[in-house]
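Example for tutorial group B:
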């Protein structure tokens, strides 16, 4: 795929209407994963813009009670749940809202491709978000992308597909939103390096010996962000930053040697771009995911909101330090996965999902997570130019290997 073409569509397509103070047209939105951390915060954003942002389709997996509340409030045209059980209350709720209910794993695609939506917020966690996101792209929907695993697993395929269908992929991840915002009006050929910031998670200062024994509760106690369990554990191992390096590599077509990670405990500078003239642009703000979510939903416009104001005196000092690869090997594993290419990022993603799940169930210890990921990377079958089917097979094989290692 021609790099310039991708960059042009990333930055300039859909810019036929120039930036205004407010959102110009009513945008119809489908949310994949509306009951999660990103999903609920997106609804909080949408709540602020009645008449500008409208929810038309929701998927909530198995969280029926929250979905009932969401249906009552937002009255989507269609709603999806994965399992066909305990649906009496939801059925009653949709009677009054006039919402259509669909159930079953296969039917999730209908939320991704719902004809009346302009944009799909991809906010399911993990590999499960991949196929619905691909189907949304094929249906020509702009994507607000929270599900980083989509680009980790199938970045080449997904970016090519987006260019082919003339679809915008707007990052929701705060670091990538920061870079995307810094790059507005800039030339990618003039980028010297991209610097992703990382909070360092709850164990930034914990020594290696103590890290072996940390509990699930400790690992879930993130200092700055409140997020779903999987990404919170990924933040503690710094695998999250590894996945984000891969995400940035695909999203911005930047070679890995131009991507750096710096630990920034305050989570105020969300990421930076250094240009060839040594000028550095950064995007700053309080750690509030609603800001990047809103930017993605309203792009290319900005819109006024009522979120908390940033106080410079409250954050009089900001700190930056090098990540410690000995304590957080996941970062190196991710760079190695990019170097190997092919299906390797898919392998490490699958192994990581299995290992994180096992840690959450207290079947393995914290430092075994990166070990299992690395060992799976060494033993799964490599594939140079994987198709979607190859990646589905890789995912299954890698999960099996990781599960065996855990046993
Ligand atoms: P979460 O666990 O809070 O929510 C996940 C959502 O996906 C829920 O609605 C859940 O019901 C649904 N879901 C889970 N498994 C599913 C399946 N198999 N099929 C269909 N739906 C399923 O997760 P989250 O923290 O909101 O994260 C969502 C995505 O956004 C992840 O990829 C994460 O890396 C990314 N992200 C999250 C944050 C954050 O602040 N939470 C920040 C940046 C990126
Ligand atoms: Mg992030």
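The residue assignment follows.
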């Amino acid at each position: 795929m021609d790099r310039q073409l991708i960059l042009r569509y990333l930055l300039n397509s859909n810019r036929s209407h120039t930036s205004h103070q407010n959102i110009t047209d009513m945008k119809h939105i489908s949310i994949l994963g509306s009951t999660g951390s990103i999903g609920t915060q997106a609804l909080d954003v949408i709540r602020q813009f009645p008449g500008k942002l409208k929810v038309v389709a929701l998927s909530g997996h198995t969280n029926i009670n929250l979905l009932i509340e969401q249906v009552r409030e937002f009255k989507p045209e269609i709603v999806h749940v994965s399992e066909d059980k305990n649906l009496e209350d939801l059925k009653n709720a949709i009677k009054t809202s006039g919402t259509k209910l669909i159930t079953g794993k296969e039917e999730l695609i209908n939320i991704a491709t719902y004809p009346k939506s302009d944009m799909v917020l991809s906010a399911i966690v993990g590999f499960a978000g991949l196929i619905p996101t691909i189907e949304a792209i094929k249906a020509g929907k702009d994507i607000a992308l929270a599900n980083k695993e989509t680009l980790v697993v199938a970045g080449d395929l997904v970016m090519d597909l987006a260019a082919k269908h003339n679809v915008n992929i707007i990052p929701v991840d705060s670091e990538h939103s920061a870079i995307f915002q810094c790059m507005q009006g800039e030339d990618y050929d003039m980028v010297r390096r991209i610097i992703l910031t990382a909070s360092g998670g709850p164990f930034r200062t914990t020594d290696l010996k103590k890290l072996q024994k940390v509990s699930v509760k400790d690992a879930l106690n993130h200092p700055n962000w409140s997020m779903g369990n999987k990404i919170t554990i990924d933040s503690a191992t710094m695998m999250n930053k590894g996945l984000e390096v891969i995400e940035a590599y695909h999203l911005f077509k930047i070679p890995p040697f131009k991507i750096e990670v710096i630990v920034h405990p305050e989570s105020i500078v969300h990421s930076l771009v250094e240009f060839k003239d040594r000028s550095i642009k950064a995007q700053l703000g309080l750690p509030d995911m609603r800001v990047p979510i809103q930017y993605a939903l309203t792009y290319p416009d900005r819109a006024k909101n009522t979120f908390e104001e940033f106080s410079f005196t409250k954050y009089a000092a900001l700190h930056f330090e090098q990540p410690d690869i000995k304590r957080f090997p996941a970062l190196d594993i991710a760079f190695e996965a990019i170097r190997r290419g092919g299906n390797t990022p898919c392998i490490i993603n699958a192994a990581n999902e299995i290992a994180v799940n096992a840690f959450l169930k207290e079947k393995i210890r914290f430092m075994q997570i990166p070990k299992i990921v690395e060992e799976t990377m060494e033993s799964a079958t490599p594939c140079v130019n994987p198709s979607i089917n190859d990646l589905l097979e890789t995912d299954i094989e890698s999960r099996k290997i990781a599960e065996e290692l855990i046993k």
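The CA atoms of residues 46 and 53 lie 6 Å apart. Compare this with the pattern of hydrophobic and polar residues in the output above.
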